[in-house]
Amino acid sequence: MMAVAEQPPFERKSHKLAFRHALSFMGTAMTAVCASIGAACLIIILGYVAVQGAGAVNWSFLTQLPAPVGEPGGGVANGIIGSLITVGLATVIATPLGLLCGLFLALFGRGWFPEVVRFLSDVLSGIPSIAIGLFAYILLVAPFRHFSAIAASFAFALLMLPIILRTSEEAIRSVPRTIREGALALGLSEVVTTLRIVVPAARTAIITGLLLSIARVTGETAPLLFTAFGSPFWEANPANPMAQLPLQVFNYAISPYQSWHQQAWGGALVLILAVLILNISARLVLTARWRR
Hints:
This protein is mainly alpha-helical. The protein has 13 helices and no strands. 77% of the residues lie in helices and 0% in strands. The chain has helices at 2-5, 9-53, 59-63, 77-108, 112-126, 129-141, 149-173, 177-185, 190-201, 203-218, 222-226, 245-253, 258-291.
């Protein structure tokens, strides 16, 4: 202790600074190692799915109906169309509701009620997807005794809603207050200022959140087990059971046929590519925003 006390002040500061630099370096190194492990796991999964599924993906696989049991060939075209319809309906349901809630929280987000809305949104985002599917089954399937793509879209909309809500709120909050105040000073009403000035200024971030929410539900399978149920035929009526690509991957994967296992890998590869394209699109939109 005497030795430390006898050191000049600048030497003690130098030792503390070196210690902090060492801690910072260790933290940075641990973060880089953890990020590398996560990225390596993702690359391994993507590579394995690509290797296993590349042999099954071709034009016939993307454009044909599933083959009957015991017959080789077939495709997942009805599943791709069914997934597009279901996710599209979910987007139509969740987007206006999430955007309006985000607007409300961003503009009038003080007090106990907005805090309750944020809390419930956070809770909803953490509920397992299979529980969401069971809720949709109790609400829309069991009373009518009929599976449908509408019920699946409702379940997907519940999964998308908290993502759209929070990203919309943050996007609108990021618009400088001076822009809003300037529009009001020019005589525009509150509604016109919000709809024609604030929302267009935040649209890039809102679109990014929307794309991420679509990517979130595109590969979901658990809610579909309770709602859409699946179909081996062409079906465009959302009031009926409808084929879904994640469901087809699930059914093919648990079948006893080797050819169906190969098709399951092909369907998984198509799903991953779809999600990857949506994420890259969201990244490009976000990058374009920051370049402005």
